[in-house]
Every structure is written in C-alpha cells, then in structure tokens.
Amino acid sequence: MKIELRENEMVIKATDAKYFNNQTVDGKLILTNQGIYFNCDDQDHNINIPYPAISEAMPYKTGIFSNNGLTVVKSSGKTYKFSVKKRNKICVLLNSKL
C-alpha cells in the first residue's frame, strides 16, 4: 500500500478507513495538501481526488450508535462514503481545503 505523491505534495493526515462501494474495503484515507487518497491492497478500489474536484465533505451516521461516516462529493456528483475515526476533525480539515 504505497502511494505516489505529486511534486510538492505533503501528507497532512492519514488514518485507517473503510470505503463502502457495494462492499466494505479496508484501507487508509490520506489527506494531503493537494487532495485525498484512499489506498488499499485491492488496486480496483484505490481513489485519488484532487481538492478542486471535491464540492463538499460531510458527516453521516453509519449506524444507530455509530457517528463515524464521512461522505465526499465530487463536482460531478459522484459520492464516496468512508468510515473513519475522528470524522469531525477530518471533515474540518477537508472543508478548510475546499
């Protein structure tokens, strides 16, 4: 699970995450100064979204007692749903970059 960073790109925050896309995929959600990555062992589920392509990031409930869902919406309307710890902190970081 290694990502190739762009020139002048730095990691701001990295955390364990689950990506929900018809199945649950375990991996890492990585926030950089230029965008976000979801990196996992399955190459088909790796995601790279630059900040200009993101229209919003918002929290959602993943269950009755679980408040750890994060939705990232691209400008095209495509949504990505993740489950992460400290979701509110990540939401604030993401929205400060948009």
Tell me what the structure shows.
With 98 residues, the protein is mainly beta. It has one domain: Pleckstrin-homology domain (PH domain)/Phosphotyrosine-binding domain (PTB) (PH-domain like). Helices cover 11% and strands 48% of the residues. The protein has 1 helix and 7 strands, in the order βββββββα. The protein has one helix spanning 87-97; strands at 11-20, 24-32, 35-39, 47-50, 54-60, 69-74, 79-84. The protein has a 7-stranded antiparallel β-sheet with strand order 4-3-2-1-7-6-5, with helices on one face. The protein is globular. The mean pLDDT is 90.
Number of domains: 1
What is the residue-averaged pLDDT? Answer: 90
Question: Structural class per helix/strand content?
Answer: mainly beta
Portion in strands: over 45%
> What do we call the CATH topology?
PH-domain like
Based on DSSP secondary structure assignment, what is the total number of beta strands?
7
Helix content: 10-25%
- Cα distance, first to last residue? 26 Å
Q: Please name the CATH architecture.
A: Roll
Summed up:
11% of the residues lie in helices and 48% in strands.
List its traits.
single chain, 98 residues, mainly beta, PH-domain like
Layout: helices, strands, pairs:
Blueprint: E1 11-20, E2 24-32, E3 35-39, E4 47-50, E5 54-60, E6 69-74, E7 79-84, H1 87-97
Antiparallel strand pairs: 1-2, 1-7, 2-3, 3-4, 5-6, 6-7
